[in-house]
Structure formats: structure tokens, C-alpha cells
Amino acid sequence: MKFAHDVIIKPIITEDSMARLAEKKYTFEVADGASKVEIKKAVEEIFKVKVEKINTISMKAKNKRVGYHFGKTSEWKKAIVTLTADSKTIEFFDSMM
């Protein structure tokens, strides 16, 4: 069994994710092996909200260059969490708007 804070790694704060807040859609970086059910339980437990739907995306590594040196970014998993219409908002994101 995974703990909720092991599943949800961090929130993603970008221009695109901030635009989705009006639709009650929140974006998080999650553990690579986390399933949609585990993500739903973790979000509901940590933030005390009701989750309607979870969309997950596996972000692939990108080639990057700094001067002469070449490398790759890490691969990671992103989850877009949609809350139910009657659910309260996540207070952490309210201060960002």
C-alpha cells in the first residue's frame, strides 16, 4: 500500500494549468507507478475533496543541451484531476490566482 504523499509528488504551476482552474481541473506530478484509483484516493485524502475524473499522461524525456554538453530530462507522470461540481476547491491553488 502506498501513502497519499508518496503518490502525489507536487502540483504543477504553469500558465496552462492555471487556466484550467476555472473548470475545477488541477494538475499534479505523480509517482510513475501510480494508478488512477491510487491518485483519486490520494487527492481525496490530502485535500478533502471529491474527484470526478483523472486523466494521466506519461511525459517522455526530452533532449537538452547546455553549451557543449548534451543530456536528457527525466521521464515523469502527470495527472489532471477533475473535481465534482459540488466539491470545494483546493485551497493551495486559490492563493495562486
Number of strands: 6
SSE order: HEHEHEEEEH
The tally of helices reads 4
How is the largest sheet built, in terms of strand order?
1-2-6-3
Task: Report the sheet-strand fraction.
Answer: 35-45%
Radius of gyration over C-alpha positions, nearest whole angstrom:
15 Å
Q: Structural class, judged by helices and strands?
A: alpha+beta
Give a description of the structure:
- With 97 residues, this protein is α+β, with helices and mostly antiparallel strands.
- It is 26% helix and 36% strand.
- It has helices at 4-7, 15-19, 36-47, 91-94; strands at residues 8-11, 25-30, 51-59, 63-66, 69-72, 76-83.
- It has a four-stranded antiparallel sheet with strand order 1-2-6-3. The chain has a two-stranded antiparallel ribbon with strand order 4-5.
- A hairpin with a 2-residue loop joins β4 (63-66) and β5 (69-72).
- The mean pLDDT is 93.
Any descriptors?
97 residues, alpha+beta, two-stranded antiparallel sheet
Question: Would you spell out the secondary-structure blueprint of this structure?
Answer:
Layout (H helix, E strand, L loop, with lengths): L3 H4 E4 L3 H5 L5 E6 L5 H12 L3 E9 L3 E4 L2 E4 L3 E8 L7 H4 L3
Antiparallel strand pairs: 1-2, 2-6, 3-6, 4-5
Quick gist of this model?
By secondary structure, this protein is an alpha+beta fold. It contains four helices and six strands, in the order H-E-H-E-H-E-E-E-E-H.
